[in-house]
Amino acid sequence: QVQLVESGGGLVQAGGSLRLSCVASGGIFSNYHMGWFRQAPGKERELVAAISSRSRTYYTDSVLGRFTISRDNAKNTVYLQMNSLKPEDTAVYYCAIRSGTTYDYWGQGTQVTVSS
Question: Is the pLDDT confidence value at 110 over 90?
């Protein structure tokens, strides 16, 4: 079965940067459409960024221009570079694989905390 492991979260001051990584195993990584989600306490899980198997990207408006999603198929890894972080970016961040129109495989998540 497909497994995803996120890393790179931590505590950072507003304006700082973090780089999240997600390593996938158990499938053909180059075929995956990948997404980064986040969930803050009391809020719905939201899609932050996505990258297709053809490396086309999507960003939610709140992170556009600050975050960059990328993939390295040779390493079975998807990255989320997070710059100019804001306290409202504080959340647990998850990577996921989309099958058809739904995301069906999820990592355990990594905590990102941005202090003011």
Answer: yes
